[in-house]
Structure formats: C-alpha cells, structure tokens
Amino acid sequence: MAENVTEPDVCTDPEMKKSCSGECESCPSAKEHGMGGGGLPDRAAVDVRHVILVLSGKGGVGKSTVAVNLAYALSSHGYNTGLLDLDLHGPTIPKMLGVQDFRLQTIDNKIEPVRVTGTLAVVSMAFLLPDASTPIIWRGPMKMSAISQFLTDVNWGSLDFLVVDLPPGTGDEALTIAQLAPNLRGAVIVTTPQEVATLETSKAVKFVEKLEIPVIGVVENMSGMICPHCHTEVDVFGKGGGKKMADDLGVPFLGAIPLDIDMRMAADEGRPFVIKRGENPTWKAVNEVMEALVKRVES
Fold first, then answer.
1. Which of 4, 78, 113, 227 lies in disulfide reach of 121, CB 3.0 to 4.6 Å?
2. Percentage helix, strand, coil, to 5, in the chain?
3. pLDDT tens column, 35-67
4. Is the full-model pTM beyond 0.90?
C-alpha cells in the first residue's frame, strides 16, 4: 500500500499484485479480504471488546479533535485503546498526536500500529504517504480494501476499545466500517451549534439508527468562545444547537465544548487537549464531555 497510494493493495500473491487491474469482483485476493461479490462481507477478526465510531454529517466541526481526546481519555483510564483514522482523504490524527513523522512497519506479515503510549495505538493513511501533500485518489472499492486491511492485517493485539475517526458524511467509509467492524458499541455524533451544521449532522444520527447502531451521544463543539482579551463569552457559531438536535431526535447529549485558541494550538503541537490541566474552562468542558463519554461506553 505504501508504494502506490493510488491503487488498492489487497493482493496476497506478488504476481497478481503486479497485474492488478482494480477489478475486485473477480479477484480471489480481494475476496479473501471480503471485498468481492456475494453479499455482505464477514465481520473482521479483531480482538476488541468495543468499537466506537466518531462521525458527523458535516466537515470542519472538530470530529477528529473529539476522536483523539476520547481515545486518549480511554487509554488514560487504563484501557488498551486503538485509534483508527479512516479519514483517508484528509488524515490528521497523526499530526494531532505528534506522531506524523512515524511510518507503519510490517513484522511477520502483520502491520504494526504506531504506539503513542503503552495503552494507545494508532493507524492512519498518513503513515503510508510519502509526504503530507500527497493526495489519495481512490474510488470506493479501493477505500473498502484499505479499511479491510486496517482491521484484519494490523497487529492491534487485544483491545478494550477501538475508536474510529470517520470522514464527514455517510459514504463508503462509514458504511464499510459499520459492516466490517465487530462488537460495535455505538457512535458519537459531533456537531457545531449553527443550524447549517445540525441540519446535516442529523443525517449522521439517522444513518447509524438505520444500521441499528446505538447513538452513544451528541457532542456540541465550538459552542461559544471566551474572548482571550475581555473574557466575555461570544457565540461565534451560536450555542445550544447540538443539544436541541439531540433532544429533537431523542438521543443523549454528552455536553458542549467551547471554541478556544488553546485547543487549536494543542492540536497543531500534537498534544491531546484532555491532558492539559488547570483552571482553563475549556479544559473543564472537554474533561466533562470525555468523562461522560467514558462512563457511557463503560456501562
């Protein structure tokens, strides 16, 4: 996969790999990875107790920020946690964890995830790209093949939780992981307060409900902002829209996280914001949301 990011790498036979046409329907190697025809694929054989999806119907709402902080919070509670970055076209998880310069290694025909801590392992397409500006130019079957590999061909070990960061919307990546992942605990839905965002994010709620996946809860991100100069709260994107959406749809509301320059800086510097402690009201809000999430997924 690392050698050519514009072609799928599901071929187990080297000779077949050389002549890969991308037509997965008739390829026995693709069928081995569950990507051929014949109905729904089997669930991936991953030793994990709970898989948590993090998604939204709208880009730019801070979904990856929530995924990173949730995974770190779970690992900090002593759980063996995996974080799978399935935003294949825009993978940012490694940057937000400060491991963007790492590369995936293969040992005994298994991909080794990047270890952030003793209890947190990460896999991302970013680890396979020659540089950060390289685009992924893939159609659906190629993305499905990569997702299958990231589940079955990675040496995740025994996990308590696998947190999956999905791209915006309800397309191939979300549907594929919903079909392949074992032991789906539920989905965390991230939105910002404005109606333009909640209108689209509500579709993500309906999507997981149609697939009979429990909604763990809704997180309202960028909910108000404390001015760093006058310390007055300013509702840049509004406030309360996420809670209203959750109430209207009859799903749990996990809390609101304000817009904060320190959170943006933490992501750019590769430090999960949840590890920042002090009197910062944003940290308190993030910690409360993460604690509410942990309690719900533990129960």
1. 113
2. 40, 20, 40
3. 444 556 788 889 999 999 999 988 889 899 999
4. no
